[in-house]
Amino acid sequence: MLPFGGHLLAVDTDSKLTVWEVETQEVYLPIEFGANIFDVSALCHPATYKNKVLLGSEQGALKLFNVKTNHLIFDFDGFGSSVRVIDQSPAVDVVAVGLADGRIALHNIRLDETLFTFKQDWSVTSISFRTDGPETMISSGTEGHLAVWDLNKKRLLGQMTDAHRSQVTIASCVVGEPLMVSAGTDNALRTWIFDQPDGLGRELSLRDGHSAPASTVRFHGADGEWLVSASLDGTVRAFSAWKDTKQQNLGTAGTMSRAQAKRTHRDLDQIRLPAVVAMDAGTAREGAWDNVVCVHDRSPIVTTWTTKKQRLGTHQLLHHRFDSDPRLRQAVAVSVCVSACGNFALIGYSSGHVDCFNIQSGKHRGAFKDPAVVTEGDKATRAHSASVVGVGSDALNQTVVTGCAGDRLKFWTFKTKKIIRTLDVGSPIVRMTLNRDNGLLGVALANGAVGVVDVQCRRVVRRFNKAHRAPVLALAFNADGHWLVTTDAIRYMKVWNLSTATLVDVLRFESPCCAVSLSPTGEYMATCHQDRRGVFLWANKAVYQQHLPLKPLPLDFEPAVATLPQSAGGSEQAAVDNVQVMEIGEDDDDDDDLDADETKPNRQQIAVEMVTLSGLPAPRWAQLPDMDLIRLRNKPKEPPKKPKAAPFFLPTVATLEGFAFDAPMEADDGGERSRILTAKRSFLEPSTKFGVSILDADTVEKRRSAFEALKGMGPSAIDLELRTLPNEALLNFLQMLVDVVRLRTDFELAQAYLASFLKIHRDALWSLDDAQLLPLLRELNETQKSAWDALDDLMIENLGVIQWLKSAVL
C-alpha cells in the first residue's frame, strides 16, 4: 500500500492496482497488470513526479505509471532479479531499487541510467536514506542485519549485526533527525540513533512482544495491573494492563548461565531450555526471593523467576531420580503450583511423581507418595499411576490436591505428605484449577464435562455434563469464585455461573484459546490463542455496565465469531471495531439495537413489604456522610502563592477623572462586607431548583418528584443541596425521607441521605423551635426501625441457613 495525497494505492495478490478515494472510500481507478506478465512487488512515488508512481515486479522490470490518466509513461528493462523495495533518495530523479539477489541499484529514472550498485549477502527488504546531514543509506535484509552505506565513497560503512532476531520488514529514517525506526518479524520495534564516531547507530529504545505464539498467561498481584506471560519462543514477559508502555522482558532460561556458555564456547541457542508451557506465581514472598515457577516443554527441569527483579531466578528444580533412574529418563514436568505462603513449589510429573521444593533454597522438601501406587521395581514413590495434569494447595497450606490423566483426584496433607482421600471423577482429567479464596477446584474431564469440587468437604458440588464437545484447553475462576470460564479446542469459551449452575455467556474466537486468566479486581480477562503472538485483554461488562442481564443460555448456544485484533495493518475504525467486540457478557444476538429499557432489569418493587434498592452504584451514595473528610483529604497542602511580578494587565475602574487602578478593599471593611454578603445570601436562599421544589413540597407527589431529582445528582451536587437547605425546608425534607422509607423503595439512598442530612443539620434541628418537628422525628424513627427490623430478620435467617449448609454433612 502507498498513501498518495488524498488517495490510497493498494496492490493485491493478483497484481491488480487499485486507487481509492480516501474521503469517499470509493474506487477511483483499477489497473490490472497480470501476475504472469508483470507481478507487482514494490511501488514508490518519485519526488516531483506529479500523479506518477514507479512499480517494481517479480520479473525484475519497472514501470512508471500515471495513476490519474491511466497511462504508462515509461517501461524500464529491469535488473534481472525480483524487485523487493523501491525508495526515493534525497536526490531528485534518483531512486534506490533493492533486489532479491542482494543488489541495491541507485538508478536515475529520468535518464534510465544506473549510477552505481551495492551488494549485500541477503535479500533486500527495506531501504532508507538519512536526511540529517551525512549522505548515507541504510538497507536491511532477511537475516536481521542492517547495513550502512557511504554514498560519497560508494562503499560499505559498517554493519549493525543482529539488529533483529529475524527478518527486518522495514527500516525508515526520521526526516531531518539522526534517528531510524526498524521493525521485524520478531515482533519488535526499535529506534536507533546515529551518534557514534564510526557512523553506525546504537539502539535508543525498544518496544517488543512475544516473537512466537503465547502459551500461557496469568494476572499477578492484587491490584490486577500486571500480567505475566510466556510464549513458544522461550521468553517470559510482564505486561501492564493499565499502561502499554510498562512492560519488561524477564528473559529466557538455559541449562547453564551465559557466562558458563561463553567459557565453554557453547552457542546460546544450544543451551536454551524449551518453551514455557505452564507456570504459577505467588505474591507472599515476592520481595524476598523468586516467586514464579515455569514448566518447560518436554523437560523435567522447572525454573524459578522473580518479578521483583524482573529476571530469571537462581534455581532450577529437578529431583536426582530423573537423572539416576533410567526408567524416568523420558519423564517431564507437567504441572506446577506455588504455595500460598510463597515458600514452596509443588511439581507434578508425567511419571506420576509429585515433589515439593523450597523456592528460597531450591532444595527438595519431600514427595507425595500413595502406598497403593506401586510399579514394578518401585517402592511406592509415586502419587499417581498416570501423568499429573494438575496440582494445587489451599490458602492455609493444609491441603494439597492433585489430579492425574486417569480419573483420580487425590487430597493430601501438606505437612505430612500423606494421602487423605481419593475421589473418582469417572473420566480422565485434562485440566484443573484451584480458587484459594473459596476453596473450589475446577476440573475439566476428557468426556467434555466440567465439575467443581469443594476442597474442604472433598466432594463434587457442581457438575456440567456435556459442557464442551471438544477437549478443554483452559479454565479459570473469577476473583469471587462465582464464575468459571472454560475454553475448548473448537474455539468456544463458556462462562458458567456457579451460584445458579447455568451457562451465562458464550464466545467463539477465530483461533482456539489455550490460556485464560481473570484479574483479581474483576475488570479484565487475558487470553492467549493458538498461532497468535499477542496477549489479548478483554473488558468485563458486568463491572462497567450498571444493568447487565445474564440470562441462562442453552448448552448448544451458537454465538457470532469474535474477531481478534490484528498485530499489523487495519484502519483506525477497524481497530475501534475490534475493541468493541472485546467485551465479556456481550450478547451476540441481533437484538443488540433494542432500547436500553428493554434489557434493563426491573427495579420496581415486587411487594410492598419488601425492601427494594435503587440499583445505583455505590460511589453515587456511599461516601455522602464523609464528604467533608474527603474534601479535607483532597485539600492542597500549600495555599496558592502570590506571583512575585505584577501582571501586565492591572485591573482598572472608571472614575470622573478617567480610569484608575482598582485598589484592594481595606482590611477594616471586612466586617461590613461580610454582613452585606450574609444579608444577600439570606435574601437569595433558596438558590437551587431543588431547594425551591422542597419548599413547595406539600404533597406526597411533589416530595417524590423532589426525591427523584436528588437521585439523579452526583455526590458533590447532593452534598451542596443538603448544605444549602434553608431552615424552612428541613421539615419537608424529613417528611420526604419518611415517605420513601415507608414505601421501602430506594432504601440505601434514603439511608445515605438521612445520615448526611443529620450530620449537616443536627445543630439546626436541635435549636429549631417547631411543634411539628418532634412528632415528625418520632414518625421517622418508627418507620426506619420497622423497615430495618424486617430486613435484619431476613438477613440473620439467611446467614444462619448458609452457615448450616456450609457446616452440615449431607
Automatic annotation (TrEMBL):
PROSITE patterns in UniProt: WD_REPEATS_2
UniProtKB keywords: WD repeat
WDR36/Utp21 N-terminal domain sequence ranges: 1-195
SMART domains registered for this protein in UniProt: WD40 (SM00320)
Ranges of the WD repeats in the UniProt entry: 465-506
Superkingdom in the source lineage: Eukaryota
Gene3D superfamilies for this protein: YVTN repeat-like/Quinoprotein amine dehydrogenase (2.130.10.10)
InterPro entries the record matches: WD40/YVTN_repeat-like_dom_sf, WD40_repeat_dom_sf, WD40_rpt, WDR36-Utp21_N, WDR36/Utp21_C
An individual GO BP term: rRNA processing
UniProt domain WDR36/Utp21 C-terminal: residue ranges: 604-806
One annotated Gene Ontology cellular component of this protein: Pwp2p-containing subcomplex of 90S preribosome
Pfam families (UniProt xref): Beta-prop_WDR36-Utp21_1st (PF25171), Beta-prop_WDR36-Utp21_2nd (PF25168), Utp21 (PF04192)
Protein name from the UniProt record: Small-subunit processome Utp21 domain-containing protein
UniProt organism field: Plectus sambesii
